[in-house]
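Allow me, if you will, to draw on your knowledge of protein folds for a short while. I have a record of one protein: its chain in single-letter code and its fold written as discrete structure tokens. I remain grateful for any guidance, and I place the record below:
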Amino acid sequence: MSIIDLMREAMRSLEANRGRSLLTILGIVIGIAAVIAMTSLIGGVRNGLISGMGLNAARIVYINCGYPLDEDDIEDLARLMPDYEAIEGTYDSYSQVQMGDKSLSVGITGASATYLEMTGAASRLAEGRIYTDAEEESKSRVALIGRNGIEAFFGSPGADAVGKTIQLNGKSFTVLGVVDDGMTGTDYCNVYMPTETVRQDFGQGWDYLSSVVGLAREGADIEAVQQQTVEQVGKLKGIAEDELESMVSVWSMKSSIDQLDTFMMSFQLIMGAVAGISLLVGGIGIMNMMLTNVTERIREIGVRRALGARGRDITLQFLTESATLCVSGGIIGTLAGYAIAWGLAFGAGALGFDLGSMTGMGSTGAALTPAIEPGAIAIAVGISIVIGLVFGYYPARRAAKLDPVECLRYQ
């Protein structure tokens, strides 16, 4: 028999026992749905967190030193370490603003446009634009504000902030954009300004940088870059080797991402084990149904053998029925899994859960969006086919070995 004929016969047989077939594949549907739902949610959590950290999260290196670093130091460091694509520093300040009967704390970060791109702040821009290099060089009084600051500055969360001005330290700054920085509440707000603007309007006479961040090149060994950074900073600042560990601190988001991957993998293995039990139960149900089908269709098997069907044809017929049953369950389970994943993601969003807070990594403002991966769908369908073949083989072989004469006598 051709594959098309086998499929047609399989569908006809399953259609004749529709209710029993649906109940039989329930275990397969539950197992596959669990695998797909958890895989897509875990992938969505990972992607959302990394997106909240910034597109270059794994390549970002944070550099701290007990001796203050200045712009000359980071220029020397960039020259000595070609593994860095860029090294940027910030000048941070603080301001307190009285808004009616409320006091608003404003954290001010003086950073270049390159810094915003490196650290992902630019990618979290919800409205407007970031400032340009020309605006930074001219010390323009422009700013980006965190979304939670809109209500404090302009009266309502939905107010149009872009193009308006805010007052800090008695000076007016034009809002160029709004950043989803994950901050909540109305008593604190992040504000980003050009580096030179902060030095001009909020500087207190110091020349050292508040923070230093490096962007490692693609393919660079992050751990090696970190170690080399510690050594080079030590040389630049004249720090003795026995003091390096206590005076210089260099770390990257890669370690956090690796920890996140480990956590996600552990959780995925647990869910995979639970889903595997469901699939095993479903496979046993498939075998039980196929054995029942063989018993109910003994006379049909005898007629087919009398008409010239070989044992191999009978085996293929029942294997095709089993595989069709499981693939149908796999498809239904895949659709149900993604529906469950989107439903949980929507529910989490409606309840205001933040990915960073949910995983203990701090607020990132990242939304939970399930990751639909073609590979997961292929694996789900493949597992369904394997289950159908493995658990359908014994009933199929049993049907093929029945004696044709005894089958025709069967009542």
Notes: The chain is about 60% helix and 15% strand. The chain has a mean pLDDT of 80.
